[in-house]
Amino acid sequence: MSDFYPVDPAFAASARVRKDDYQRMYARSVQEPEAFWKEMSGRLDWIVPPTKIKNVSFDPNDLYIRWFEDGQLNVSANCLDRHLADRGDKTAIIFEGDDPGESRSLTYKELHTEVCKFANTLKNLGIAKGDRVVIYLPMIPEAAVAMLACARIGAVHSVVFGGFSPDSLASRIADSGAKLIVTADEGVRGGKKIPLKANVDESLTRPHTSSVETVVVVRRTGSAIHFQSPRDRWYHTLMEGQSETCDYEPMNAEDPLFTLYTSGSTGQPKGVLHTSGGYLVYTSLTHELAFDLREDDIYWCTADVGWVTGHSYVVYGPLANGATVVMFDGVPNYPDFSRFWQVVDKHKVTLFYTAPTAIRALMREGDGPVKKTSRKSLRVLGTVGEPINPEAWNWYYRVVGDERCPVVDTWWQTETGGFMITPLPGAIDLKPGSATLPFFGVKPAIVDADGKTQEGECSGNLVITDSWPGQMRTVYGDHQRFVDTYFKTYPGNYFTGDGARRDADGYYWITGRVDDVINVSGHRIGTAEVESALVAHPKVAEAAVVGCPHDIKGQGIYAFVTLVAGETGSQALVKELIAEVRKEIGSIAAPDYLQWAPSLPKTRSGKIMRRILRKIAENQPDQLGDVSTLADPGVVKNLVEERLIK
Ligand code: WTA
C-alpha cells in the first residue's frame, strides 16, 4: 500500500480546478475535443481566430497533425504586448546569477523593449521569417530575449544547451542550417567558467557549418575572447540605437516556433519541431492549472533553457500567462547546499519546479541546509524529468514544503510540448511516485509488446491514442523519421518510449524508458550516440552502452568496450575513452563505468543482446534469462565475473 495524500481542503477551496471540475472537464475534453480546445484557444490573442480546431491522422501511412490551422497569431505578442496595458510594470523576469550577489529584474515593459530591439537587430542582420537561429547561452535574460525576438519575426530558434561540446553544437548547426548564432563570451556555473564563445569558434571549424554568417556575442564575464570580424558582433553594440518597437509578424498557427534536438534510440539527435498556436495554448494552460497560478505568484523553474522544460515552463507558458519568472544561472550546491532555499526566500518564490536528481542530491546533505531557511512563501512544488522515488518525494514534501505544499509530479517529454500526466493540485489526490492522472485532452493507454491494449490494473508500454495541441509536428528535415520513430511501433498511437503501470485507481506510474535511451539526471542520452563516440577511438573495435542504477542521477551510463586485436585495456585508456565522449558529446554523456569486454553477447544474426548487458550493469547476474540463443554463450560468464558494480 503506497502513501496517499488527499487534496488539502483549504487548498481546494480556492483552487482553479477542483475534483468535480477535473472529472467534468476531462470527460468533455476527450468526448468533445473540438469544442473544448476551441474554448481553450480563447486564452490567447489571435490576429485571426481559428475556426478549424483539430485536423489529425495518426495513420503511419498518412500522418498529419494540425491544430487551429486557419488561425494566425504571434507568440511573442502573446507573451509580451498583450500584457503591457495591465501588467506593463509587473516583473516578468527576476534574474539570479551564479554569484549570490548578482540579481536584476525586468518588467514586462522592459522585456518588451529588449525583445523589440533584438528583433530589429536580427532583421538588420538579414534574418527573416523561416530562417534558423541557434542560441547557445547561459541562463541569462538575453536567452529569453533572443527566443522571443526570433518568435517576433518568425525566425525558428534552436537552443543548444551550454553544456554540449563543440562537436554536438556543430551537428545541430549543420542539421538546422542556421544563419546566425547567439552566444556569450563565457558562462559561469558553480564558480567555474564555461568557454561558450571558444566552443562556438571551434564548432564553426567543423564541416557543414558554413551556413552561419553572424555570431552575436553577449558580454557576460568580460574575459578576453577571440573575435573574428566581420562574422562576430557584440550584442550590446548592435542593440545601441535600435528602435524600441518592432511590429510582430503574423504567423499561421502551424508555422514553426522552434526546433530542439533530443536523443532517441538510434542515430544522431533529432530536431523536434514545435509550431506556434497549439504549443502556446497547451503550454500556457498546463502551466496555469498544474501550478494553480495566481497573479501575484513568483514562479521558479530551475531547468535550463537548453532543455524543453526551459522552453515550455521558463519562457513560453509562464510569460504567455503574464507570470513573474525567476531565471537562475547557478547550481543547487554553490556557494553551498542551501542555495535553492536562499533564493526562494530572497525572491519570495511561491511555485517551485525542479528535478528528482537535484532533490536526491540535496536530500543526501540532510535537513540542515533546508531548515535554516524559511521557505514560507512556497505554495506548490513540482518535479520533472525522471521517475521520482517515493523517498525523495516524501523528503521534498515533508522537509522542503513543511507538509504544506502539494507536489506535482509532471510526466511529459520534449515531443509532447507540455504536461501529459500530472496532478492538478486542488483536484487530484497524490501518491508519491505517481504522476497521477492525464491532463485535459490526453488519452493514455497501456499496450503489451504486441500492441494489445491492456485494461484496468496493468503494466506495459505507454502510448497516447489521440493528438493534443502541444504535440510535436515533425522531425526537422526528416518527416519519415518522425513517422517511423513514434507511429510505426503501435500503429494508430503515439509511442512514448516509456513503460508505465496503471493501478486500481487509474493512476499512472512511469517506470522509465523501454527503448535505448538512458535518463541521466533527467537528461536523455541515446546509447547509440555514446557508442559511436567510443568506437571513433582507433583502439576500440566495438562498444555497447546501457543504463545502470545511480543513487543521485537516477541512471548512470555503463559502457562495455571491446578493443581491437592486440590492444589491452588500462586505467589510462579508460580515462582517455571517457574524455573522448566528453569531447564528442559533452560531460553529461560521460560513462560512469567502462568495462573491457573480450567480446559482446550477440545473437546468431549478430545483434548485441542488450537485455543481458543491462542485467549485468544492474548487478542482477541471476536474472540474465535465456542465453541459449547467443552465438557464444561463454562470453557472458566473463562479463559477469568482471562486472564493475557488485
Ligand atoms: C522521463 C523532459 C517519470 C520519461 C520533460 C520521458 C519522467 C523523458 C517524468 C522525457 C516524470 C519526464 N516521471 N519520468 N515526471 N518526466 N520523464 O524529453 O522517461 O527531456 O520519456 O523531457 O523523461 O525527457 P525529455
TrEMBL record:
Question: Where is Mg(2+) annotated to bind?
Answer: V535, H537, V540
Hydrolase among the record's keywords? no
The record lists ATP as bound by G385, E386, P387, D409, T410, W411, W412, Q413, T414, D498, R513, R524
One BP term from GO: acetyl-CoA biosynthetic process from acetate
Record-annotated residues binding CoA? R189, G190, G191, K192, T309, N333, S521, R582
Q: Which GO terms describe its cellular component?
A: cytosol
Output the Gene Ontology terms for molecular function. acetate-CoA ligase activity; AMP binding; ATP binding; metal ion binding
Give all residue intervals belonging to the Acetyl-coenzyme A synthetase N-terminal domain: 22-79
Kindly state which keywords UniProt assigns to this record, in alphabetical order.
Acetylation, ATP-binding, Ligase, Magnesium, Metal-binding, Nucleotide-binding
Superkingdom in the source lineage: Bacteria
Ranges for domain AMP-binding enzyme C-terminal come to 529-607
Q: Which reaction does it catalyse?
A: acetate + ATP + CoA = acetyl-CoA + AMP + diphosphate
Q: Which residues form the AMP-dependent synthetase/ligase domain?
A: 81-466
UniProt cross-references to SUPFAM superfamilies, sorted A to Z = Acetyl-CoA synthetase-like (SSF56801)
InterPro entries per record: Ac_CoA_lig, ACAS_N, AMP-bd_C, AMP-bd_C_sf, AMP-dep_synth/lig_dom, ANL_N_sf
Family named by the database record = Belongs to the ATP-dependent AMP-binding enzyme family.
Q: What does this protein do?
A: Catalyzes the conversion of acetate into acetyl-CoA (AcCoA), an essential intermediate at the junction of anabolic and catabolic pathways. AcsA undergoes a two-step reaction. In the first half reaction, AcsA combines acetate with ATP to form acetyl-adenylate (AcAMP) intermediate. In the second half reaction, it can then transfer the acetyl group from AcAMP to the sulfhydryl group of CoA, forming the product AcCoA.
Q: Supply the name of the protein.
A: Acetyl-coenzyme A synthetase
